[in-house]
Write a structure and sequence with these properties.
Elements: H1 3-16, H2 32-60, H3 64-74, H4 101-126, H5 130-143, H6 148-153, E1 157-159, E2 162-164, H7 166-173, E3 176-179, E4 183-186, H8 190-194, E5 197-200, E6 203-206, H9 207-213, H10 217-220, E7 222-225, E8 229-233, H11 237-257, H12 265-272, E9 285-290, H13 293-299, E10 311-314, E11 319-323, H14 329-346, H15 362-370, E12 375-376, E13 382-383, H16 390-399, H17 408-411, H18 416-420, H19 430-453, H20 456-466, H21 471-475, H22 480-484, H23 488-501
Parallel strand pairs: 8-9, 9-11
Antiparallel strand pairs: 1-2, 3-4, 5-6, 7-8, 10-11, 12-13
Length: about 500
Amino acid sequence: MAASSLRSLLLLLMLLSAAAPAPAQGIPRKTDEQICLEEYTQLHQGFEKSMEDLAAECDQQGLKTAAAVLRARAARIDRQTLDLDDLPEEIGASVPDPGDTLQQRQHELESQYAARVFGISQKAMKAGSINLAFHLVREVAFHDPDHLNARRMLGFVKSEGKWSTPFALAQERRGLVWHEEFGWLPEDHVTKYEQGLRFYRNRWMTKEQEEELRKDFDEGAWEIETEHFRVKTNHSLERGVELSRSLEGFHRYFVREFSTLFSSPQQMRQLFDGKAVASGTVEKHDVHYYADRTEFVTRLRSEPYIEACNGIYLPRKRTAYFFFNPRSDEEHLETLFHEVTHQLLSESTKQTYAIAQERDFWVVEGLACYMESFRLKSDGQYTVGFPLHRRIVAAQRHARNPQEFVPIGRFVSFGQQAFQTAGGKPVVMQSDLQVYYAQATALSHFFLHYRDGIYRDAFIKYLGEIYSPDRRIREKVTPLNVRTGQSYSSLDQQFKEYLQSLE
């Protein structure tokens, strides 16, 4: 499935089929979220028709390309093939030429539509539907890139005729420019870097000379700062920048899809009311990337089983650790996105808390394992949730074996210790624990994708309670059977059927 289609599908279908209330006498009362969605659907139908009428005129005039663009931009969000987050940097870039009647009509249609979608997003916010509100705001900015409130909510500020993030603006004011291979550099250094020279310790030198001087991680490692990460590495500048780009792409996806975990209702209301701008001064996530496994193991020797790890996130240090693996880039990416999932969730609050100690630990590892299949493409699109991932395939096999399948009602009762010791039994082999990891991965996939995401909203709210900064909420997480309105035995059956459908 195309990345953009999957991204939108996970959004809209989740919302259109969000966990239904338990059966009651008579017709269930519509939720405020459902009312917002109905209003959005009706509004979009009118917008799509108007855009189609304009596209038909283009067809009649032989303007095939223009017609195709109109139809693409009018597509419903769950069918959108364009990247909603690919916004122009220049202010006014979407304003048509005065003499172009076609573009003027298109611009008017999209601007009017965007204004009304923003109105619905405000209603969704007041209804407490943060995820819906946030995604509608993304659509507002897509159709009206200069919509001030939408841009503000997405973290942009105006500066000298363009939209920028607070971090990028600060870098530019220091005279730095972003280079895809070398990161942030003084503008007058770019040409020399491209020629193979490096500036270090106040003098120019060859790339090889700099790499020799930077081998000592504590004294000379490169530090690459981006919007949300600070990567420190003694491998190479290029590898550090490549890593930071992958991390930013993952962060962009993760925060977008799980927005309720990163913005409180109070913060979102301030953004909607124009009283704040999405923060550009957030604490950065620290990542250490060593030149080889030997240094990784040596520096982290106090951590249990570190010799068997390809990466690790340590909540108490709020740092993720990795190393260059020359044998398998695929393995590196899986570990990277797994551990950074732990990092993003753990650091979604200012303080670090013990999570799921008494129960519900499965989701801590399950979601991280699910994210192992995240891949960012060169065009900015992504794929995630690969149904043939080795952990999903293993879970399908275990589900057919009554001795290996753990009923969901029991599985969610495991806290960290019980989970990591295979239900309280001594773990004789690594494969014993991998059975649990496989089921946790598949269960996350189930709650995110079953029947086009019918349980997705319930799952995200469940996750939000587990990682809540409020201890009272963390200690009384609403059970999944209550969240979904399904008994655990019914969920078991649906889960097994779902796994079979993936084969």
